[in-house]
Amino acid sequence: MKRLTLWLAACAAICTPALAHEERAEAPAAAAAPATPARDKVKLIQAGWLLGVPGQQPQRERTIVVRNDRIERIDSGYTAPETIVDADVELIDLRDRFVLPGMMDMHVHLSSNSRGDAPFKIKYAADDLPGASVEERDDVTHLVDAIGNARKTLMAGFTTVRDLGSAGWNIVALRDAVAAGKLEGPRILTAVSIVRPGAGTGPGACSGVEGCRRVTRQQIDMGADLIKIYATCSGSLPCGLQYAPPVFLDDELKAIVETAHSRQLRVAAHAHGEEGIRAVLRAGVNSVEHGSYTPADSFETFKKNGAFLVPTMSVHANIEKDIKTATGPMRAVMQNFLDKHGPRMMAAWRAGVKIAAGTDAGVSVHGENARELEYYVREGMPAADAIKTATVNAASLIGREQDLGTIEKGKIADIIAVSADPLADITALQHVDFVMKDGRVFRDDQAAKRP
Ligand SMILES: [Zn+2]
Question: Which residues lie below 8 Å from residue 24, measured CB to CB, with a gap of 6+?
């Protein structure tokens, strides 16, 4: 009996449905088994155009068969619901839509609001109340903001994000609540607090090899999915200049990367200046974030290490505004940044460095994540490659290429749709009107119009 059950379980995974049925019919012992499995849910997505694998040609008139949370198969033409008899079937008519994989943003800060979007505050909270330390209160209010920002991100067609820095437990709670289906948002991978140099005890601050190992382990123990390092000053600070030095010492960088890698976590490094980028690549990080001044002599190390560049060009919108009122040396810093960032990213891309899309939403605007791809196209990247950065490449950066990044048999059903061809006009992705994540529909603007 036990062996038969095991065999049936294995068969469910590998046999054709017909064979599984036949074997069950001939096996009365199995038929007598007490548990009646819940009926599957199948969604048939009839797609007018399907860009199942970004980088390849889109296909006309396909049906994506989604069984529960996975893609069971892709049919040519439009499959009728009556042909599926072993499940509850729902038809989703996207025959006038362009369908593609859910997008992925590799650099967001869900608990930070972009400029002009004031952070949530608790009214009337006095400082001397129990449980009202600044850290505790921030953790709660950040969670409130993060819940709203996560929903905006998902509704914009981004089904997976990496959150690269948020002090406290809020982001861990949000990640787990979304995964449990209690809140609406993208699948979240979080770095928890950014590991940064500092002699103090603030979140993520570390000094020396032992100190940096300890703080890295602290993020892992809090539930980090990856580690984020602050390796140069911010681009908006004078110390974030093109030739500014890295802020960590080499042995500290190595200690952080080794500690993360020993626990099979990847490392993302914030780095703007040339020397900082060389330093983090020497230490073996998996992605360089921003990479504003990525030097040509680093391209080979990127490729040798399999490291990605995550450009976050969306922040240009802020700098383009700020430079209008900036004066003196800061104006020159901003102009140099605007002049160099795009061309250097494109030089890296042309040399074969892998690019994964990331926006820095939280600095840039949550829910406008798809603008990032417009920047790449404006710099000269073909739309097909820009879409790859937010799908195939992003899935590879997080090591989830077997599950995410394309619409193919066996993958998790993260699927979005737009009304126009994004290969012809990349801005079409800024108007997503259908969002499915894990086989569940979160947005379907056309649903009301269907018979
Ligand atoms: Zn950032």
Answer: 8, 30, 31
